[in-house]
């Protein structure tokens, strides 16, 4: 009796379980995903008319590769025309995983779990650590198989150093962009209304900002306008430090053959005093530290701010201009040159050692030379010639046409390749690319490209053993904010610098930066 | 109920106060909702603040719904919420009930063993290795099976079961019921409030599944809603390359908030009645 009842109960439980399990299989069917993972691997040829040329003795099987990167915005493989073409042309099945957040943690678990992707993105610090732990494949022997990776294509000797650890090449680094692309933009119609000229010096900039705050440039009878806005600490104050001839605090510069830390330079303290004065007079957007995304640009377009420190594309890209006109079409913005200040005429700091991506290959892949060979072929393919055109613009005849050997973008299909930057894993030749893609904006980016810059070398400066750079950065930025807002008197600046040296071991950082720059031949 | 005037005035003020606090809670929600329905240029024209939308547009919502990943992500999220919560409740109940009965041998050591996991855990990488070794990587079950029993909720449930009168058990035993029958026929029907509460905690947890998906599921086709939304709303990690991207507008962000909270918000009123119901109405005549 009792046992029988128990059986019935067990049956009920089993039923519950099986319901759960069936719910699972039901969902994967109903969710629109095929149970196989090969939905993406339909041969791309099935949509294009079959090529008539018989394939020469190629291995029939495409090489399967996985790649992991941080970021987002990659379309599904069936919509990714560039990926389909890459897979077809190189006879591979590349699967790219984009990680929208927590990239570092995910990479760590994958590597610790012994299943790293076949290629993955690292920053400078990770590359150094992993290389020292022997986890990365040294690509130096494979460079001879990459005929497109040449100085003519933008891979200069100095640039390649960004992918090296101890002289070994672990990555083909992403090629440089225009050094400084942000400039001050000023509301021209406000200037005209108040009878002012576009500022060229730091003091004129302050004067214009003051007029914008106090003289009601929008004529609404309220004192509701901001002078200067930008994006965060450096994205607003960088150009002001530059006018004093220094990079914003926290960067490594070279002066008189020595590596120096920008925070410690006398000009930095002067710049901080000057900025403190500007904030005291209310010339800078009170929210500038927390602005992110396009907040600064929107404050400009909305008619709240008259001077915006912004990227040329964010002010002049056709869709941005449309946005501006939909808010108020009676406004015009003028791109300003670098401000001249006590330290000369400089636009902003540029990190000569920085690169946007470094893709590396794990050492465990050595056991599969076929995969390594394919990755090398791939990195080479997208770094020049037809592969470069493909990852820049898409398919010839559909997304661009070659006119006198120059690519011309077809506007109608542009949306299909809006994600092209994701596929430019080794970058592009910047000016050629911009001219093809943003031809109408040429005056703005060429102007930005010619700006005088202050070079910094952070990207080349390794993190010394046994320090925590995040702690130092946090302390430094917190104190600097106190100084510019006057909550800590600037008389205490020397004490602050002493803390950096005593508590945060600044000397170690400088020594290791100096050693590395000597080794690379940048410091002589 | 209310007899004299003084009491009525007092009640009026109580209701007024409650109405005000309800409004204070609703206001941000209304703002989010309005911005998601207003054309973004309009929002900017109003200085970035809109409470009652003048022109309504469903652009932000259609932008999401035409993204091929969103409907599928909803499917994934609904599945892990439903199946996950069912499994959570089943396992938690089956564990909490025996632990609530004093005649269970080794009750103390088992409790110690459980509480230990509240204070110490393996950490991310060891957990990943366990998930990998059990073959759950890249499957939907990796978001359901790890953490199927949450110790804290187990303790809440156990305490609740302990408070049920022993005499109910005894009465059923006399009638010849076994343990499982007592659980299924007597304890569970009396435990609707706690099952609803714990079930809600669990299901909100599943609905907001993010980190587990990020760590264990590499296949974008199996990503739940929160991960996909985050992918759409994310501004890239490389601001210097951002100049080519179309960045999500505030309207789009607000629409994402609505899309991701509305379904779980709708569930609340249906569970509400279990929270307020007396737990043991009429079970034992005292």
From TrEMBL, chain B:
Residues 74-271 form the ABC transmembrane type-1 domain. PANTHER family: ABC TRANSPORTER PERMEASE PROTEIN MG189-RELATED-RELATED, POLYGALACTURONAN_RHAMNOGALACTURONAN TRANSPORT SYSTEM PERMEASE PROTEIN YTCP. The keyword Transmembrane applies. InterPro entries: MetI-like, MetI-like_sf. It is found in: Cell membrane. Keywords: Cell membrane, Membrane, Transmembrane, Transmembrane helix, Transport. GO terms for biological process: transmembrane transport. It comes from the Bacteria. Belongs to the binding-protein-dependent transport system permease family. This is Carbohydrate ABC transporter permease. Its main location: membrane.
């Amino acid at each position: 009796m009792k046992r029988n009842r128990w059986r019935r109960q067990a049956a009920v439980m089993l039923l519950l379980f099986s319901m759960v399990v069936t719910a699972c299989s039901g969902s994967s069917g109903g969710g629109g995903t095929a149970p196989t993972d090969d939905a993406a691997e339909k041969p791309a040829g099935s949509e294009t008319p079959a090529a008539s040329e018989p394939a020469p003795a190629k291995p029939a099987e495409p090489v399967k590769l996985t790649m992991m990167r941080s970021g987002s915005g990659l379309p599904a493989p069936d919509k990714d025309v560039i990926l389909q073409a890459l897979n077809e042309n190189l006879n591979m099945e590349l699967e790219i995983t984009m990680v929208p957040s927590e990239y570092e943690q995910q990479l760590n678990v994958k590597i610790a779990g012994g299943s790293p992707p076949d290629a993955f993105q690292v920053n400078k610090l990770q590359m150094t650590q992993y290389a020292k732990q022997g986890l990365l494949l040294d690509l130096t022997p494979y460079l001879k198989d990459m005929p497109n990776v040449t100085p003519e294509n933008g891979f200069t000797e100095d640039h390649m150093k960004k992918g090296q650890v101890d002289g070994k090449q672990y990555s083909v680094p992403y090629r440089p962009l225009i050094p400084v692309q942000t400039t001050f933009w000023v509301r021209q119609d406000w200037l005209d209304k108040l009878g002012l000229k576009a500022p060229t010096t730091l003091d004129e900039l302050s004067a214009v900002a003051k007029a914008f705050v106090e003289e009601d440039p929008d004529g609404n009878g309220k004192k509701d306008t901001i002078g200067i806005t930008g994006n965060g600490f450096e994205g607003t104050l960088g150009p002001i430090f530059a006018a004093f001839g220094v990079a914003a605090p926290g960067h490594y510069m070279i002066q008189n053959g020595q590596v120096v830390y920008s925070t410690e330079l006398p000009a930095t303290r002067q710049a901080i005093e000057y900025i403190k004065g500007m904030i005291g007079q209310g010339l800078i957007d009170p929210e500038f530290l927390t602005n992110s995304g396009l907040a600064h640009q929107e404050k400009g377009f909305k008619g709240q701010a008259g001077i915006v420190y912004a990227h040329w594309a964010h002010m002049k890209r056709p869709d941005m201009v449309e946005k501006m006109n939909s808010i108020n079409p009676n406004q015009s913005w003028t791109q300003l040159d670098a401000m001249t200040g006590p330290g000369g005429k400089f636009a902003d700091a540029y990190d000569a050692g920085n690169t946007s991506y470094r893709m590396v290959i794990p050492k465990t892949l050595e056991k599969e030379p076929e995969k390594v060979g394919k990755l090398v072929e791939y990195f080479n393919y997208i770094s020049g010639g037809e592969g470069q055109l493909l990852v820049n613009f898409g398919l010839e005849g559909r997304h661009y046409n070659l006119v006198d050997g120059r690519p011309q973008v077809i506007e109608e299909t542009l949306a299909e390749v809006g994600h092209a930057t994701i596929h430019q894993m080794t970058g592009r030749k910047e000016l050629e690319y911009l001219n093809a893609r943003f031809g109408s904006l040429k005056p703005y980016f060429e102007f930005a490209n010619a700006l005088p810059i202050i070079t910094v070398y952070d990207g080349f400066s390794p993190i010394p053993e046994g320090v925590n750079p995040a702690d130092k950065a946090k302390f430094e930025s917190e104190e600097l904010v106190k100084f510019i807002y006057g909550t800590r008197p600037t008389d205490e600046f020397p004490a602050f610098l002493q803390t950096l040296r005593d508590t945060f071991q600044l000397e170690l950082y400088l020594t290791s930066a100096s050693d590395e720059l000597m080794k690379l031949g940048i410091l002589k | 109920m209310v007899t004299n005037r003084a009491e009525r005035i007092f009640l009026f003020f109580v209701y007024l106060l409650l109405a005000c606090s309800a409004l204070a809670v609703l206001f941000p929600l209304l703002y989010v909702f309005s911005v998601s329905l207003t054309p973004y240029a309009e929002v900017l024209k109003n200085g970035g603040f809109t409470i009652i939308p003048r022109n309504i547009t469903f652009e932000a919502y259609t932008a999401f719904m035409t993204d091929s990943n969103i409907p599928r992500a909803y499917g994934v999220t609904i599945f892990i919420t439903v199946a996950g919560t069912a499994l959570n409740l089943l396992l938690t109940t089956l564990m909490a009930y025996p632990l609530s009965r004093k005649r269970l041998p080794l009750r103390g050591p088992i409790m110690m063993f459980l509480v230990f996991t509240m204070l110490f855990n393996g950490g991310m990488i060891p957990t990943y290795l366990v998930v990998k070794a059990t073959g759950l990587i890249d499957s939907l079950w990796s978001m359901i099976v790890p953490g199927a029993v949450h110790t804290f909720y187990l303790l809440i449930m156990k305490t609740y079961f302990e408070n049920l009168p022993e005499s109910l058990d005894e009465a059923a035993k006399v009638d010849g019921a076994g343990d499982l029958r007592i659980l299924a026929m007597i304890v569970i029907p009396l435990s609707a409030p706690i099952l609803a509460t714990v079930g809600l905690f669990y299901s909100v947890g599943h609905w907001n599944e993010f980190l587990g998906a990020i760590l264990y599921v590499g296949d974008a086709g199996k990503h739940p809603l929160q991960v996909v939304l985050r992918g759409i709303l994310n501004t890239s990690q490389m601001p210097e390359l951002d100049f080519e991207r179309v960045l999500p507008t505030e309207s789009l962000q607000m629409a994402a908030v609505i899309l991701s909270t509305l379904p779980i918000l709708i569930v609340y009123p249906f569970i509400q009645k279990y929270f307020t119901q007396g737990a043991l109405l009429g079970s034992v005549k005292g």
